[in-house]
Amino acid sequence: MKLLFNSLRFRLTLLISLMIILPMLITLSLVGFQGTSILQKEATEKLSLQATALANNVNLWDKEHIRLMQNLSIQPEIVSMKAKKQKPVLEKTARVYTNIYLFSTIGLNGLNVARSDNEKLKDYHDRPYFIEAVAGKDIVRQVLIGRTTGRPSVVFSSPIRNDQGTIIGVAMLSTDLAVVTERLKAVRLGQTGAAFVIDAQGKVLAHPEAKYAAELKDFRAHPTVGALLSGQPGAFTFTDNHNVTWLSHSMALENGWGIIVQQQKQEIGENVRFFWRFATLVVLIVSSVVSLLTWIIATHLVRPLEKLTQAA
Q: Which residues contact 249 (CB under 8 A, 6 or more apart)?
């Protein structure tokens, strides 16, 4: 070992390698920390962008139904509050909007006046969407188990007013939640992430795991959902019962619903870990190549000196 260290060839190789490798390591460290910061920021922004995209989709869907309800409630046949005039309009509208299984009108007593299907007339006096519409709320939304289908549904309702502006009834439409889930396109992010929609009570309306929406799963205990419902949307980090850390982003919509996007921090950080593994591999390869080339060059430079020394 002492002979190797005293070797001019070894010392020259070591000196040149250090002159090249040390600056490279310092530069790589600075770039690495900067790159890590950028990758982490991009991961957070990706969650925000996904939430925004889903929010835009939900808003578009919501506005379509609002326009439909507003147009339907002012039709002269609907305002007449006569079943014989209302039913043809409701049936025609149902044929156009096939994703909506029921259009209906309700009298002030809560009983059906007319329906777009052939089901018997029903009593809706206890439904919040009827009570709020009769009270004067222009657009009411409610997620519930439909009395017609027995499945989770989303109901929109709007008051019917006469020429004097007096409320004389309620118009409503019902769409199956499975159709809503398909339309809103709740998506999965990577292996662990998901983007989903909740209503104002924290019940799941759309989720990549269809079972959650099918049973109107109550997500109020979810940390991000709880923060959103308490008026604190935005970026959020939490650890679940399995000690797994999640990054999430929530967004409140004008209709009272909310968007949640979440993904495990470990999966999000995979790009960062890949970056450092790649950088370490590059350093090892470059160091090896530099050392080898330096040794070869040093050998060619030192050999003539060694021969002169031996000759002397």
A: 44, 47, 48, 50, 51, 234, 235, 236, 260, 261, 262
Question: Which run of H or E residues covers position 61?
Answer: helix 8-73
What's the burial of 230, exposed, middle or buried (CB within 10 Å: 0-12/13-18/19+)?
exposed
Q: Are 258 and 225 in contact (CB under 8 A)?
A: yes
Token representation of residue 189: 């992010």
CB atoms within 10 A of CB 53: 15
Residue indicated by tokens 């795991």: 209
Half-sphere exposure of 275 (CA within 13 A, CB side): 17
pLDDT digits (tens, 9 = 90+) for 237-295: 888 888 888 888 899 998 889 999 888 887 766 666 666 677 777 777 777 777 777 77
Beta-carbon count within 10 A of 52 CB: 14
Strands (E), 177-309: 188-189, 193-198, 204-206, 234-239, 245-252, 258-264
- DSSP β-bridge partners for residue 193: 189
* Residue 116: closest CA among 62, 173, 193: 173
What six digits make up the tokens of 257?
């619903």
